[in-house]
User: Fold these one by one.
Assistant:
Number 1:
Amino acid sequence: QRTNNASKVNKTILQLHEKTRTNQLRIPSASGVYANKTARPNGAQHTGTSRESIEDSNVGDSTDILPSDSRCTAPLKEVRDQTFQGGFTKIHASHGVPKVIHMTSKSRCMTEPYASNVDRWRWSGYGLRVHDDESVNHILLRNWSAYFPRLSRALRCLPREGESSAAKADMWRYLLLWQQGGIYTDIDNAPGDQLASSLESFNLTTVDSLIALNWKSKLGQSFMVIAPHHPIMFLCIQRAVQRLLTVENLATLNTWKVTGPDVLDSAFAEFIGQPKQKIIQDGVYGISSTVKEKLQSSFPKESWMFNRTIHVIGGSSAAEKYVRTSVFHGSEKEMLYNLTGMSKWQGERAHKSNLSCQSWLAQSNGSTLS
């Protein structure tokens, strides 16, 4: 029976790999040349006025793929980071976005189709980092009290007692982009035909972030280009912390509302000083004077809240030319998730407890994040 099951798994892998190779999944090729050299740490630092520096945003002396230390078992394949010492993409006169693409997966061990899709993001002149569970926890468990004093308590109310979940990925994404900046993409996205050239064309504009609209003309979380210490990420974290701490029943926590897309929508509305919009138009949006003054009052010795903008790109008719979302579908995606140990969280009980977040915190001792 085990032999038959293994044969079926291998056959499925080969079929999916063949579909990727022949481009039946319609994943566009990404241009780029990478050298297979050993990277040398550099530790590039941010020269802004904020308390936290960007840690290891870009390392190496060219576009390098880090050497393998594979612990993956066939048919899974290890996906390695690519590093680049190239500073920032200057899409604002005083703010820059590190040329590093970030994505997350439960593990670096992936099926061939997923690994091939990650390779689509290996562009010349850009770093690429795949953050596994250990890397995600490393970000979440840092001391964030200087900016988010209630964050550590809120994280203890994450779904599934701190194990992998969509809400945990949301919080990690906000914190990573707040501290380090860079380009975030979901691991099952593929770059659209015009994405790479569009990123370069924004080099001379007056914006310091790009957020792509989804097909509903709403802000999407699946692809964001953010400069370090951008107020939109600060507002997202602040709002998500508040919503986590006020959850009334952890077992039925609504991730979409508490940490997900509604948080980004609400934070964007606050950023521009307008009510939430059902349909968002592409264009450049500046920070409202109310938010700027509020942040300046909270952090009087810092300047990261000045002259900040958000450039919204895409829309229902243009989204695919920038980013192709969820390129794996149906049984293909389900099989890939099963083979790589990734979880499909939709429909699962969010938490073992049906207590409120505050009651859970009072009852439990220590962090439950794992």
Number 2:
Amino acid sequence: MLLYHVKEVLLKFYQDDIARIVALVVLTLSIVVGFYVSSILGLIILLFFINGCAAAVFTLNHKETVGRYLQKLKDFFGYKDYDPLAASQCDVCGNERCPRHNRNALIHEPWKGFLIEAPLDDAVDRFFSHILDTFVRNWHSQITPDEQFMLGIKANLRDALCRLLIRAKELDAPTVITTRLLPTFFIHYEIIAKMMLVDHVPMDRLAKTFLIDEYPIHPAVLNRQAEVNYLRGVAKVLIPRLFTPENINCKIFFNLIKELLSFWVLLPLLDVISDPNLINLLIIAATDKRPKDAASRAKSQHQKTSCEKVEILREFVERSRERVECGVETVVVQGEENILKDQSKLYFFMQFLIKEGAVEWLRFYLDVGEC
């Protein structure tokens, strides 16, 4: 059994071009060192390479067993995993294990103190404005010139973007890369390498062979409609984490934001990410070591130093707020009943104040009115 595994590993090692090149380089290095420096040193280099390959193969084939032994080793030496969420304090009472207050509640007005560079803010402003002008304003302007609806959407988009950025900052990037991205990448690499090197499948038949052999594929790559349905599901998962429950309970708002995220944010983003030309350009730009022109370096340095930071999407929201304040007339209803005398209106008003945490103001007003 052991001999069979060794033969299988050596066969895969031989069929991999990169592995053959690395092995050839190490073997050449050990021979050169053995002839010109020391035969023992050359043998040590070769043995270290063989042991490293064997250890890597053993670790990849027995990941769960190695993980258990590493955990036991950590426990033996007293190392504990750090959980930043468990160590965070409650915003209300300061207790680290608060069972009373809702610590997963969305941040109210997350844009306060959130500063970004002015060019980036202008780019995001133009992006959101293009989405709203194309998808919302073209039909909303035919119904009413009231800007209050657009102001509400803009304010919610700004809040959602800030909450998304805050959550992105809380992600543990090394854990996501090592536990999610790298295993998926290596699984795809092994499948494609087997199809091309072992089965000798031509490049133009890889996709058909992948489907015929019933390899697991992502549901979004079947066709365009499947991709849209998948992105709608992603949007449904994102919306409760980005918008307040008051907005989510409104079906019109929920469906509108779901379509905006699906068709105007996630779908173009997925098309850009899956473009191989863009990926190649990014790789070339990241690995290009040619010295830049002195003038371009000085210009970029000047732009970095002169960029001022502004509150995120402040102008984006303020434009609609100014239109509301300047262009909308206040309609006064004659004979309007006092909300404090109507029990049904007062009940809903108190429920709203309880959600906003401002019910004390109503009690104070009622106490003053009784005096």
Number 3:
Amino acid sequence: MGKKFKPISGGTHGDHHALWIDPKNPLHLIDGNDGGIDITYDGGRNWNDIQHMALAEVYQIGFDMRKPYYVYCGLQDNGSWGGPSATYEYSGIRNEDWYFIGGGDGFYAQVDPSDHNTIYRNYQMNGLSRYDLRIKRGKTIRPIGMQKEPPYRFNWNSPIHISPHDPHPTSVCADDEVVISRMNGNISNRDSRKIIHQRKPAFPSIKRCEDAKFHPNKQEI
């Protein structure tokens, strides 16, 4: 027993986390993975992808200032999504009311306080983009290091913060710096502020960034 193994996960979602084996029928398996649940009745030769269960792992939540306001979230291995918090429709909120704004492991999704059509979202290692709802298209704005300096390093779940104070500068946290853009995230107009003054191999990184409660022009890290 155990001298030879062969894969049986063809047709399932990746990143497997749980497996149930029917004690009365070992060919009946239930696989729990990043995409939800897959079931086989023939030992893995054929899998049924269960798509009618509402399953998701949400990392971060954002919202806009509309009435009713819209909610944005980043999902584990299933990108970033937006949808209404409420509706005037008799049928309630439907699946088609939600829309996709980017792939990867969805993390932060922050909306420009003065323009609900502009959304900043990122995926793993700060794959940062600015999404425009009017044209349904995103633009990559991931900051890069200055010339002759080490490149920025980002946490797996890098924070994004948009100040509620005019002119709503956008902040992106790298491992030891806060990169601030005052022009809609454009890389050509940014200010980098070093917080940790010595790079360490243990990879210290900033986990959260927000406006100081009593100082509108300052930020807390």
